[in-house]
Amino acid sequence: MHIKFSKKIIESNSGLYLRTMILVSGFVHKRFRIVGDIYIDVDEILFAVLIIVGTWLLVKAMRRLITKPNIIANKIDQKRRMTVFLLTKYFVWFISILASLSVLGIDLTTLVLGSTALLVGLGLGLQHIFTDLVSGIFLLSEGSIKIGDVIEVDGSIGKVMDVNLRSCELKTRDDVFIIIPNSKFLADRVVNWTHSVEKVRFTINVGVAYGSDIDTVTECLIASTRSNKDVADSPKPIVQFANFGDSSLEFKLFFWSKEAFFIENVKSDIRREIYKQLKEHGLEIPFPQRDIHIKGMSKEELLNQMDLKNKMKS
């Protein structure tokens, strides 16, 4: 009795499964009429959706594979990893969209030929956008500007936060975000402070009074960098006796740092320490001085002229 009852349940479930599969199969293979003789199949739509979803999952997996530390990516510079990922992502999405259109039965050749006039009109109206897109492809392929680089453009210094096909996102030292079209990087002069090296050399100018001991000044300037954690140990800071100024002996302190983005804060800390070091060793930073020599008139004549003017005023 129990065995017969179990067989009935199994047969009932099998029948329900078969009916469900038949309904699903019938819906999947159903064709809908769009306009005129244009039809679209449900299975083609589902297949195209699967391609898009699969591409999205593939891109997410590629991001982890390329940008996260691993055996392959460790051999590539961290900034270049994101460039490689962006190029690969755009290429994969391009192929995925073409495949989806092909699955839906859209003839790409006919589509391109039929929209030629439209593309020409769009090209004339959106030529700046196309220029930015092409510039973005060049930037990504060349790797001249990467995420994390500190660059200077149009007098503004900032860190590159994102590189897209049309524009780059720049974060300034005031925490202001600037969106810059990619074409500007190819047409204008751009300074990349961290293009190929992490450590960048910076300079601080210092003037001390005439008569100061030069060796002591050099020791003070070098000592001012030792306590600063943002100053690189290698290469070591160096001091140059730059010039005999009008009112001071001019020195230059050169040091290397990885903190190119916040270097003004680093310089400020070093200048504070320089002032303390010079003060401890009795060295002065002089005020500008000018010696005026009046020629063509003796001291007695000058005094007589001044007395005469005072008498005329009284």
Short description:
The protein is an alpha+beta fold and 314 residues long.
Key structural traits:
314 residues; alpha+beta; SH3 type barrels; Alpha-Beta Plaits; 3 domains
Topology of helices and strands:
Layout: H1 2-28, E1 31-35, E2 38-41, H2 42-67, H3 78-103, H4 108-114, H5 116-125, H6 127-142, E3 150-153, E4 156-163, E5 167-172, E6 177-181, H7 182-187, E7 191-192, E8 200-208, H8 214-226, E9 238-244, E10 249-257, H9 263-280, H10 299-313
Antiparallel strand pairs: 1-2, 3-4, 3-7, 4-5, 5-6, 8-10, 9-10
Helix pairs in contact: 2-3, 8-9
What does this entry look like structurally?
The protein is an alpha+beta fold and 314 residues long. The chain folds into three domains: 27-114; 128-192, Roll (SH3 type barrels); 197-314, Alpha-Beta Plaits (2-Layer Sandwich), CATH 3.30.70. Helix content is 52%, strand content 19%. The radius of gyration is 37 Å and the shape is elongated. 15% of the residues are buried.
